[in-house]
Amino acid sequence: MELVRAKQIVSTPSSNVEVQFNGVSVWIDEVHENGKTATVHLRGLGEERTEVGIEDLKEITY
Q1: Could you list the residue range(s) of the whole structural domain that residue 48 is in?
Q2: Angstrom distances, CA of residue 26 to CA of 2, 13
Q3: Which residues contact 37 (CB under 8 A, 6 or more apart)?
Q4: Farthest-apart Cα atoms in the chain, separation
Q5: Number of domains in the chain
Q6: Is the CB of residue 45 less than 8 Å from the CB of residue 35?
Q7: pLDDT in tens, 6-61
Q8: Can you tell me the distance from the alpha carbon of 53 to that of 24, in angstroms, rounded to the nearest whole number?
Q9: Tens digits of residue pLDDT in 4-13
Q10: SS3 state of residue 56
């Protein structure tokens, strides 16, 4: 995923954009200032957050 798109998704929390990390649906909580990582958590399951590389996120379109 591109940095600009990740920021757009975070800035529009009401949007229902599906984002996956390693094939699992996640919510992007925050894009970090370094521009290379984001904090995400699994959709619907718990609140554990993980820092991942933005390039490892994939927007799913149907």
Answers
A1: 3-60
A2: 16, 13
A3: 31, 51, 52, 53, 54
A4: 30
A5: 1
A6: no
A7: 999 999 877 788 999 999 999 999 999 898 999 999 887 677 899 999 999 999 98
A8: 14
A9: 999 999 998 7
A10: helix
- Counting every residue, how long is the chain? 62
Six-digit token string for 57: 């996120």
Tracing tokens 């600009």 back to the chain, one arrives at: 4
Rounded to whole angstroms, the Cα distance separating 3 from 37 reads 9
| Rg value, the chain, Cα | 10
Residue 12 belongs to a domain with what CATH number?
Answer: 2.30.30
Query: Which of 25, 22, 26, 28 lies closest to 5 in space, CA to CA?
Result: 28
User: Which has the closest alpha carbon to 28: 39, 37, 18, 17?
Assistant: 39
Predicted structure pTM score: 0.86
In 3-state terms, what secondary structure has residue 11? helix
Token couple for 49? 């957050």
